[in-house]
Specification:
Two copies of one chain form a homodimer.
Chain A (H helix, E strand, L loop, with lengths): L5 H6 L2 H5 L4 E4 L9 H11 L7 E4 L5 E2 L2 E2 L13 E4 L6 H11 L3 E4 L9 H17 L2 E3 L5 E4 L12 E2 L12 E5 L2 H4 L3 H7 L3 E6 L8 H10 L5 E6 L5 H11 L5 E5 L4 H10 L7 H11 L2 E2 L3 H17 L8 E5 L2 H13 L9 H8 L12 E2 L6 H15 L4 E5 L4 H10 L6 H25 L3 E5 L6 H8 L4 E3 L3 H22 L1
Parallel strand pairs in A: 1-2, 1-5, 5-6, 6-7, 10-11, 10-12, 12-13, 13-14, 15-16, 15-17, 17-18, 18-19
Antiparallel strand pairs in A: 3-4, 8-9, 8-11
Chain lengths: ~500, ~500
């Protein structure tokens, strides 16, 4: 496997699509609701990295969204690095031809209606191939949403992003990169990725893959220092041999999570009409995923949770060394349910040694339990659950992983108390300010030092204050209690795979 | 099975716990953060149905949370219908004795530290049994959170509720009733039930079940006209024979969803320390659930989603007649994923007849697809997806169930457009007002008339405006696209079970 190399990545042609300095946009106007291209241009502008170098092309308008519009690509005063096309299908080849004459080498073609729409579409597909060959152009699409790059021209323009998707909410920058044959999975997941703290730095909607495919992007992400984890949504793999070879090189270093949406009869029909791909048997894909170390799922929530878990493991290099889980809970029900699912997923929830139990019991009320799970019951001393017990367990060497359940919403509680005429305990008011220095910083250190993941969870939604605090600090935190054991099982399996393969290399 | 009967339900002693007219509270003070009992009293007050008939008992305080406090139960001027105890374990028997002398017949005992805490706890348990027998008292608990009743003294006090839980957010009233051996599952699910529109009318945390158990509550819910669906969280069933007999009578009329948290080694240890129950083999429970028609899951999200799905089916009496699903989507990826999971769950996604395809195609752009799934691609005419296509499919008789994916957040979109200096199309502004008369009302009618469930879904969170509109109108709506096919499969299986058993009766 080649070393991560900033120079080599700069030479990869995909870089031109993610970090252009100028862009020509075809098919946008001023109707920000009715036309998708206008929404997309709006987001290109909002990203803030192009400054004046956005060149809308429009046959009639003088200005588009505040930018001078050009009647044709030939009128643009420079040769733009990238052309973005969202035009009626039939005129795409002609506009591409003009772009070629102008000297533009990179295009994103959002327009649909090519291969996925029968014989006429196929002919148009062949036409755009011809034009691309003639002018030595490369293009993403057609039938795609394009790209999101949270690292746009980083570090010089630190807060800029490049976003050609139509929804308004950008992902939050992180080490996850997505390649998707569905625009929705690349883009419209942003409400959830923002809530959950799934930090996606780059996301590419590849559409029909007429010119650039998953393999091209995997080659880029393999060496990209900004990519630590890769998510794939697949309806078809066009270059199977290359895919398998490449993925085998990637997965021991950078985990890959994949959704394969084909494999059943009606799903194949659905995919045919979506991207025009011919999907294959589920079993073949399962075998390829297993052989190459890809983690796969049919669930979009699992996909996002797995990516987040691996992203955090990857950024701190915290990979668990075994299957033993220590569970701390303020509530017997979620404790019992997590214990059961942990065991169903093949993990171990070992009873603690007598000495460890005694040490824990000192800090607990008599109604509480010091076995594994530790059930603290209703706790006045919140910090025990958040830091003291996790610390004890980490240092005990009796577990390889920790789950602590009991994250609540202080803000809401204090508001309700105030509105009920009650008094707020001063210690409680300070507690929220203590979270960063007393819980988050030391737990990060402990995780890294001992390579023991600590997962937090609670019954409140991600938008509540304490959840947000953990989540924005990249501490694994889970709303509800289904996902912690599931994600842990996934992470432990990947850790084992990773160890074996990195030893062998 | 006995008929639903308002008179007979009034005679069930559980009614005394859910609709008391007066309550004595032991163990609450004015510290709304540090003591659980104080939080619980706060919620009893907030429910609004008791007026002045709340009687805190406290050895020192003159007033507790604005109510006159009494030194002992004997000082209370009336005989309260219910006593609520959250006191140190060792003094519980003595206070119970005093309640007995006073003439109080119903108690909720929140205090823990009984059976689940070894031999001393067992002795205390036997003591409270003795006192209860002596005075012919019944009690819920110990080691529980008590009750939530959204139908508290309904209809006379229409907006009142009775809530002895400690979290501040009450459930929203509906036809779902919960019996739980975990307080968290009874109470702390409220953030999610509120977001998702899971409408829980009654929720009972039964704790150790020393006096009143799941079977008692099932007997009550069986005939309760306010209960349409039942959710159970089980660590142990004490009266197995009675449970099985009763449940068999209930499930053909009122569906039951259950979580069984025992069945693995560490889970059994966890449960022993939680409620003191001895849990049994997973296989035994699975067999009982299957035999009795209980729908079971190990996931809290599935539990809430299943309850919501059944609650809506039950209130409109919309039970699907078959396994055929029609899928409408504005996005190929979620369409393909739902098609695949539908097939994996045993449903059918049949290709539409030529004539239906032609009828649909008239309303679609050329890049869209009229097979099943219908992929409308990016749609300017939102109402096609929300009502026109569902209507066509319902009337076609080619499907038994419908999923429509493409719910977005108008408010956010319009805000962003405004902040970008764009203009809002007037039709779009009106669209939100059209949802109720043009989508929600007619779709409810269609569902009922044809007995075809229509599930909506989208990539946005439940807190967004359109989601809320559907959810508050009790239209099945799903955030993300994992749950629609899962819930549909569950509903179809239950419908089949229901038909078979109701035929046989």
């Amino acid at each position: 496997m080649s070393e991560l190399n900033k120079e080599s990545i700069k030479e990869n042609f995909i870089e031109d699509f993610l970090n252009p300095k100028s862009i020509a946009v075809f098919g946008a106007n001023n109707n920000l609701l009715g036309t998708m291209g206008s929404m997309q241009l709006r987001n290109i502008i909002a990203g803030g990295g192009f400054e004046e170098n956005i060149f809308p092309v429009h046959p009639r308008l003088e200005k588009v969204q505040g930018f001078k519009a050009y009647k044709s690509v030939f009128d643009i005063p420079i040769i733009p690095d990238l052309a973005f096309l969202i035009l009626p299908t039939r005129i795409v080849p002609e506009v591409m031809e003009q772009c070629g004459q102008k000297g533009i080498k990179r295009l994103i073609i959002t327009s649909g209606g090519f291969r996925e729409s029968g014989s006429n579409g196929l002919e148009l597909s062949r036409k755009i191939d011809e034009v691309a060959n003639k002018y030595n152009m490369r293009f993403i699409g057609p039938n795609c949403l394009g790209v999101f790059n949270g690292w746009f021209r980083y570090p010089e323009k630190n807060n800029a992003y490049f976003n050609t998707f139509w929804i308004y909410l950008p992902h939050k920058r992180g080490n996850i990169s997505i390649v998707s044959q569905s625009g929705t999975i690349a883009a419209q997941t942003a409400w959830y990725t923002n809530d959950m703290g799934v930090k996606i730095g780059k996301s590419i909607s590849v559409g029909n893959e007429r010119n650039i495919d998953i393999v091209d992007l995997l080659e880029y992400f393999k060496d990209d220092p900004q990519t630590g984890v890769i998510g794939l949504y697949i309806e078809e793999i066009k270059r199977g041999k290359e895919f398998r070879k490449l993925v085998k090189e990637i997965t021991p270093k950078k985990p890959i999570v994949a959704i394969y949406a084909g494999g059943t009869e009606a799903a194949a029909r659905s995919i045919m009409s979506h991207t025009g791909s011919i999907s294959g048997d589920d079993k073949i894909y399962d075998a390829v995923f297993k052989e190459t170390g890809i983690i796969s799922t049919n669930s979009i929530s699992d996909f996002l949770y797995y990516l987040r878990t691996l992203s955090q493991a990857q950024s701190y290099n915290v990979y668990p060394k075994g299957k033993r889980v220590g569970i701390i809970t303020d509530s017997g029900g979620p404790g019992a349910m997590m214990t059961k699912t942990a065991e169903l997923y093949g993990l171990e929830v070992p009873e603690f040694s007598k000495s460890l139990q005694e040490e824990i019991a000192k800090e607990l009320p008599t109604t509480a339990s010091a076995t594994n799970p530790i059930d603290v019951t209703f706790h006045e001393n919140f910090l025990n659950m958040l830091i003291k017990f996790p610390k004890m367990l980490v240092k005990s060497k009796e577990v390889d992983n920790i789950i602590a359940f009991g994250i609540y919403d202080f803000d809401e509680i204090m508001e309700v108390i105030k509105s009920s005429g009650g008094e707020i305990d001063e210690r409680m008011k300070e507690l929220e300010n203590l979270i960063e220095p007393v819980v988050i910083k030391p737990i990060k250190k402990l995780m890294k030092k001992y390579s023991i993941p600590v997962f937090y969870a609670g019954p409140v939604p991600y938008r509540t204050s304490l959840m947000e605090k953990f989540s924005s600090s990249d501490i694994p935190v889970f709303s509800l209690w289904d996902q912690p054991t599931k994600c842990l099982a996934m992470l432990i399996n990947y850790s084992e795979f990773r160890n074996e393969h990195n030893k062998a290399l």
